[in-house]
Automatic annotation (TrEMBL):
InterPro entries: ABC1_dom, Atypical_kinase_ADCK, Kinase-like_dom_sf. This is Protein kinase UbiB. The keyword Transferase applies. It comes from the Bacteria. SUPFAM superfamilies: Protein kinase-like (PK-like). It holds the Pfam family ABC1. The gene is ubiB_1.
Length: 532
């Protein structure tokens, strides 16, 4: 069937004669690369030698970068980590992967536009910047406007399909990801997301919608799309550059970093609760930062992955956070309303109040929160023990993109060392949606509420029977107990060979319920620590 529309809007067909011959060969080659990648990933997982592990990580990063597509996206997620060693090994994946030569890219532009690209532009930089699904070239129009031309890699559709077929077994070396959870649901979610990312017309629409929603923030810049030059495999938008994440970390002052962290968090919550849209691929390759007279601003690229949350889901999540902060309502109905599977949560229902307090801790404290104190994975593992997988696999597959965006925000805050008052960032959204939160209908379920949880951590010191010190803290302080003990008590703990770490882990395993934590007694001094 002959294409009837404008020549430059013609789709790039992959089922031509060359494609039918070449793609099976490429699939075989890609499957072989996956086998090698899985082997290298095993080295990363099981190596105990630091140098050997770093070398193996770099080997995996190199393979991920050369394979492009979904493997490179996986690598970008690994790269964007608070762990500096992983940043060293995988960081090149979001800033400097090898692009295709201009000789391979130029014919794609000419085919899509049905015109010599040089006639449309005063200049096109032949040196592109590679991404996971395509690469970007800077160009200047004859009127002086600078544009970014993103060109999709030829054959990337087939490569992504091969990637998805491999997810089930490749996931194992990266942590047994395929054991026990809805792999088909996650595969479907990823596939639908990638279909959007692979069609730049949809991305252009998403970018324009985002600009009209979360992009209206005075702290955020979304480049304008040039619709007349964009099509299925080419996206042209305004060129806006800025400082990289690495430059921000190394060159910005602590004050600038704190303001940026505060703006990032306030904007993230506004995006979620007021617009129901989250940029779900916020790795540093898709973000730049500007220092302006009005303070720091965030430049966003790549809108192929935007997470949408409907009004009911947003109101449910907001009331869940508020209920956890106030310890006023049981968490199970909220989680089920958000799509968590009741049958998987029921065995851990008695620990869901404690889990929710840990999970949402930054919102629950009344001071600027230091994300380095969170230690989320460690604490949840101690709390849930052998049943920790119940919570991990209970969530709906679509939540993957919300968690990815949230993890990115946490990683930025940690990298900035920005301590932000989360409860203040939440206040305006609670006030705006107070009526809707009150009208929310939740499922009726037998539940465990917060009454069983300890409210306070108490530390008492007596000398010769006389009270010398008495401190009352929020119960969550138990996870940082060593920070609240005086030097003499810490020396005694060391002398008595008391395992403070194990004591705290036992408190978590018991679900943060009231009770004695430990006592230290000698002829003249007594120290008591308990939860009540």
């Amino acid at each position: 069937m002959k294409w009837q529309g404008p020549a430059w809007k013609r789709p790039l067909l992959l089922d031509d004669q060359w494609g039918r011959l070449a793609m099976p060969v490429e699939s075989i080659r890609r499957t072989w690369n996956y086998a090698q990648l899985a082997k290298d990933a095993v080295k990363v997982r099981w190596s105990h030698d630091e140098k050997a592990q770093l070398a193996a990580q770099k080997l995996v990063a190199d393979r991920l970068g050369r394979m492009r597509g979904l493997p490179q996206k996986m690598g970008q997620m690994m790269a964007f980590s608070a762990d500096p060693s992983e940043q060293d090994a995988f960081g090149s994946l979001y800033e400097s992967a090898d692009p295709l030569p201009w000789s391979a890219i130029r014919p794609i532009l000419q085919t899509a536009w049905d015109i010599d690209p040089d006639t449309l532009f005063q200049e096109i930089d032949p040196h592109g910047k590679a991404a996971s699904l395509g690469q970007v070239h800077a160009a200047t129009r004859h009127d002086g406007r600078k544009l970014a031309i993103k060109i999709q890699y030829p054959g990337i559709h087939n490569a992504v399909m091969t990637d998805l077929a491999a997810i089930g077994w490749l996931a194992k070396p990266f942590g047994n990801l395929s054991d026990g959870f809805n792999l088909e649901g996650y595969r479907h979610t990823i596939l639908e997301g990638l279909k959007t990312e692979l069609d730049y017309r949809q991305e252009a629409t998403a970018q324009a919608d985002f600009a009209d929603g979360p992009g209206r923030s005075p702290w955020v810049i979304v480049p304008r799309v040039e619709q007349e030059l964009s099509c299925e495999n080419i996206l042209v938008s305004e060129w806006i550059d800025g400082e990289t994440w690495q430059e921000v970390q190394s060159q910005w002052s602590p004050e600038e970093k704190t303001v940026l962290g505060r703006r990032l968090l306030f904007w993230f919550l506004e995006s979620l609760f007021e617009h129901g849209q989250l940029h779900a691929d916020l790795h540093p390759g898709n973000v730049r930062f500007l220092r302006t007279s009005d303070g720091p601003k965030i430049v966003l690229y790549d809108f192929g992955s935007v997470y949408h949350m409907n009004v009911t889901e947003r109101i449910t999540l907001l009331r869940y956070i508020q209920a956890t902060r106030q310890q006023s309502e049981a968490p199970l109905p909220f989680l089920v309303a958000l799509g968590f599977r009741h049958e998987l949560l029921e065995p851990i229902a008695d620990r869901l109040p404690a889990l929710s307090r840990v999970l949402l801790e930054p919102f629950c404290v009344d001071h600027p929160y230091d994300t380095s104190d969170w230690r989320l994975s460690e604490r949840l593992n101690d709390l849930l023990g052998d049943e920790r997988m119940n919570f991990r696999i209970a969530g709906p597959p679509g939540l993957l993109y919300l968690l990815r965006s949230f993890h990115a925000m946490i990683t930025y805050l940690a990298g900035l060392d920005a301590k932000v008052l989360w409860c203040r960032a939440l206040q305006s959204h609670v006030a705006t949606h107070q009526h809707a939160m009150g009208q929310l209908n939740l499922p009726s379920l037998p539940t465990q509420d917060y009454k069983a949880l300890a409210k306070h951590l108490k530390v008492q010191v007596l000398r010769d029977g006389q009270l010398k010190a008495s401190v009352t803290l929020a119960a969550a302080a138990i996870d940082r107990l060593e920070k609240f003990l005086d030097d003499e008590t810490l020396r005694r703990i060391k002398q008595e060979r008391i395992d403070l770490v194990e004591i705290v882990r036992d408190v978590r395993r018991r679900g943060y319920v009231p009770g004695d934590v430990f006592e230290l007694t000698d002829p003249h001094r007594e120290v008591k620590v308990w939860l009540e």
